[in-house]
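Quick one, tokens below. Sequence please?
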């Protein structure tokens, strides 16, 4: 090795070390405050929660995070690649982003999960509570839209298997996976290009089918005049180029082929609601939730003993259950606008919604759900006096059982995305007993 070559390698090494040290120090000052804030907000005593909160804060607040993402995405795009980050995100021929998945079909847990649902069904029906399972659609690339060799995320088989077992065990279930087609919506109208969620318009179609099915199956009378299922009673508003979903934020705007429009449905008769939400892991006594039903002002919830970590909002649909997105986004706002959080802030570990226009019917419904159910729950809240919702993978079995045992609901509706048919989303009835 001659002197010039050795000098070049040494200079490169020194520059690389200086850059890494400088970048690390810059990161420390840039994200240190967010890390400390995340640690303070994490559940006390839970090392796992603290580590997860710190890791998320470091990743989300990384210095030059989005320029790096965009640069990497442009490089992949220039190479004509249909996947990014080792198949973390993949693209179909129409430009829709999907998760990549090599392990679909392994460790199918459908039978055991259906058994848990059946146990819950039997235990709650004995108390006078109706229990059912609803499966929403999944964003799946059609065979003709797939590039050869790309592992597109597809849990259709697991969804089919789950529904077969539920029917075998006699659990009432509704398959909404084709509901958007029955309502005349195209694939592009039903799903986002940059996010895995269904659109509010497709969710509304699912809500309409759900109401019809509940009424027919259980003899109920939700929305008897078909008022809340009539699209003419909603204002349809489209925000242009303000949507960059979670999959798009992972790949960058250029790789995602730009921002997309976001269309929302706003009830013309907005009603009046109390919405309280938070993390039940911070509520030492789940029985304290009984105080929520007595509150006149949801905003005062954190003044109640045992409920200090919950927060509330009062008012019209657009002041509580719906957060209107920004009209225009600039700079890094495009990564933080998060239009999909419009309904119920996308998802909270626990929601309590009281419809002040329907307090006389005394109907209470509990959704065991994931983020896919948020727009459906928002629409459904118009039809009953009280709705609660629990994001099931945020619960341990003890907290979930305490929630289920604390009162006799009229309905418990399990609504989970096909990809979430796993043990962590079913933290209940692992044995025959429910306290």
């Amino acid at each position: 090795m001659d002197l010039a070559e050795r000098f070049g390698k040494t200079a490169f090494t020194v520059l690389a070390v200086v850059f890494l040290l400088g970048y690390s120090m810059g990161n420390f000052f840039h994200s240190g405050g967010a890390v400390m804030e995340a640690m303070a907000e994490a559940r006390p005593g839970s090392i796992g929660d603290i580590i997860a909160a710190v890791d998320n804060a470091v990743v989300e607040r990384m210095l030059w995070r989005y320029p790096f993402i965009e640069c990497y995405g442009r490089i992949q795009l220039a190479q004509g690649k249909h996947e990014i980050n080792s198949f973390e995100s993949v693209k179909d021929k129409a430009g829709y982003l999907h998760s990549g998945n090599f392990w679909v079909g392994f460790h199918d847990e459908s039978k055991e999960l259906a058994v848990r649902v059946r146990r819950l069904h039997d235990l709650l029906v004995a108390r006078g509570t109706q229990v059912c399972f609803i499966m929403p659609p999944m964003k799946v690339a059609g065979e003709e839209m797939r590039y050869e060799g790309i592992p597109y995320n597809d849990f259709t088989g697991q969804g089919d298997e789950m529904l077969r077992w539920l029917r075998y065990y006699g659990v009432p279930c509704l398959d909404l996976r084709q509901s958007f087609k029955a309502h005349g919506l195209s694939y592009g109208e039903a799903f986002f290009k940059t996010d895995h969620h269904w659109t509010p318009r497709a969710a509304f179609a699912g809500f309409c089918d759900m109401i019809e099915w509940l009424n027919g199956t259980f003899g109920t009378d939700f929305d008897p005049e078909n008022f809340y299922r009539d699209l003419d009673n909603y204002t349809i508003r489209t925000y242009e180029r303000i949507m960059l979903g979670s999959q798009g934020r992972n790949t960058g705007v250029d790789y995602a082929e730009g921002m997309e429009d976001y269309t929302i449905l706003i009830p013309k008769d907005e009603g009046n609601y109390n919405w309280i939400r938070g993390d039940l892991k911070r509520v030492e006594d789940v029985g304290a939730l009984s105080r929520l039903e007595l509150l006149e002002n949801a905003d005062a919830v954190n003044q109640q003993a045992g409920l200090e970590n919950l927060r509330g909002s009062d008012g019209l649909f657009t002041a509580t259950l719906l957060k209107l997105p920004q009209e225009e986004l600039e700079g890094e706002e495009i990564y933080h606008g998060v239009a999909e959080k419009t309904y119920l802030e996308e998802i909270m570990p626990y929601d309590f919604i009281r419809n002040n226009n329907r307090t006389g019917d005394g109907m209470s419904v509990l959704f065991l759900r994931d983020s896919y159910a948020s727009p459906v729950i928002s629409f459904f809240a118009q039809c009953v006096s009280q709705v609660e919702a629990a994001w099931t993978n945020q619960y341990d079995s003890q907290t979930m059982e305490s929630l289920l045992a604390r009162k006799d609901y009229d309905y418990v509706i399990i609504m989970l995305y096909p990809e979430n048919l796993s043990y962590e989303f079913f933290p209940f009835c692992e044995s025959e007993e429910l306290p």
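The mean pLDDT is 89. The longest helix spans residues 3-41.
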